[in-house]
């Protein structure tokens, strides 16, 4: 664990068991003028939160022992004003949505840049937890579809970049987008996502 909290700056706590990731993210945030507190598990996160009273927290949902969801729930009770952003892999979007319900303000998929992280903290529009499905998809399918659309929007429609961030093959993403548009209310827009290419 480590702490560096200038009195004039907001303090951000990083909770992640990946020490290399924590070191890189902490360095970038300090260069932006933030105080940084680092914890690698549930117990460290609670101890550091009580000691430093951070303003924001970045929490990885997948950690050994207590999960990131438990960290979010406990920190919400301990520091009601704490703004939390959770980090997740593509396969755990449903868990990320649960973290939002527990009190996180947003979620991002790894890898995420510092600019994306800071923007997520300041995001004002609500995350849609119960958006009506455009098709007869299951809830998990609907969450996946909303996530694909959000990442694609963040990438300004660049399918190759969206596929890279999602950790999937470009053509796999194109097929998912094409199927989704065909079944939903936005059927006329399928061409952009469904265009095939040899580029991967």
Outline of the structure:
With 200 residues, the protein is of the alpha/beta class.
Overview of the structural elements:
By secondary structure, the chain is an alpha/beta fold. It has helices spanning 19-31, 42-52, 68-78, 93-102, 114-122, 139-154, 159-166, 170-183, 190-194; strands at residues 2-4, 11-15, 35-39, 56-60, 83-88, 106-109. It has a 6-stranded mixed beta sheet, with helices on both faces. Helix 3 (68-78) runs parallel beside helix 4 (93-102) and helix 7 crosses helix 8 (170-183). It is globular.
Within CATH, the superfamily of the largest domain carries the name Response regulator
Q: Indicate the percent of residues in helices.
A: 40-55%
Largest sheet: 6 strands, mixed
Q: Give the radius of gyration.
A: 18 Å
Keywords, separated by commas or semicolons:
200 residues, alpha/beta, Rossmann fold, Arc Repressor Mutant, subunit A, 2 domains, 6-stranded mixed sheet, 6 strands, globular, disordered C terminus
Please outline the helices and strands.
Elements: E1 2-4, E2 11-15, H1 19-31, E3 35-39, H2 42-52, E4 56-60, H3 68-78, E5 83-88, H4 93-102, E6 106-109, H5 114-122, H6 139-154, H7 159-166, H8 170-183, H9 190-194
Helix pairs in contact: 2-3, 3-4, 6-7, 7-8
């Amino acid at each position: 664990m480590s702490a560096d909290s200038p009195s004039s700056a907001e303090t951000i706590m990083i909770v992640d068991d990946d020490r290399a990731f924590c070191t890189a993210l902490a360095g970038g945030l300090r260069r932006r003028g933030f105080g940084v507190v680092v914890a690698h598990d549930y117990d460290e996160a609670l101890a550091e939160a009580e000691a430093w009273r951070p303003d924001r927290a970045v929490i990885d949902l997948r950690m050994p022992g207590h999960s990131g969801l438990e960290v979010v729930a406990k920190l919400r009770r301990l520091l009601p004003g704490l703004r939390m952003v959770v980090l997740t892999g593509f396969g755990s979007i449903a868990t990320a949505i649960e973290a939002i319900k527990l009190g996180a303000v947003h979620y991002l998929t790894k890898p995420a840049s510092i600019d994306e992280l800071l923007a997520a903290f300041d995001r004002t529009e609500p995350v849609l937890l119960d958006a009506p499905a455009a098709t007869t998809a299951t809830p998990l399918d609907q969450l996946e579809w909303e996530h694909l659309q959000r990442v694609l929007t963040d990438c300004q429609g660049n399918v190759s970049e969206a596929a890279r961030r999602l950790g999937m093959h470009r053509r796999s993403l194109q097929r998912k987008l094409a199927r989704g548009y065909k079944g939903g209310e936005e059927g006329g827009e399928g061409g952009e996502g469904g265009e095939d290419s040899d580029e991967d």
